[in-house]
Amino acid sequence: MITAGFTIHNPITKSQTTILETDAETDGMGWLLEVRCAPGQKSDIAEHYHLDWVETFEIRSGTAFYKLDGVQKTAGAGETFVVQPRQRHVHPWCADGEEMVYRQSNRFGQRSPAAVQEVLGTFATIAGLAGQGKIAASGLPKDPLQLAATLRTLARHGGYDASLPASAQDFIAATLGRLAEAIGYRAVYPQFIGE
Fold this sequence. Notes:
alpha+beta; Jelly Rolls; 4 helices; globular; six-stranded antiparallel sheet; three-stranded antiparallel sheet; 195 residues
């Protein structure tokens, strides 16, 4: 189980994500993270959207690039922006030669402790797999069965990659994702969440 204080290090983007609040602190309604982004690195997560989550990003230090609906924008320390449900976006990444720090809060449309644990666990697993060379430059698993298992969990909680229609991702999740899980693939592996 991921608790406040858990830290995720992504070896591809050199980011460090510290979990400040989980389902225990939010009553299953979301989370609060603090992310440190290294200069010259891209965002940890490709363009995506959520069916019913509201995400708020507060730039704490440095300058950030981010994308909303395909448009790249800039925000500086002290600025906040909000991503509404179904709005395509890319999380902030460093816009200059200095480290950039932001806080991200997610608030769900309904209480779901499982979504908090499984989505944060998926982030931790992707970072762990990246350390083993199993994640592509895109930030997604290289192995198609691992990708299908990952998509299955994210889709179950209303998270979709923006590069493929949601219906295609639902189909992959229901077919290949189910097969992947049946033969042992998971979106979350215990060794990457401290269990």
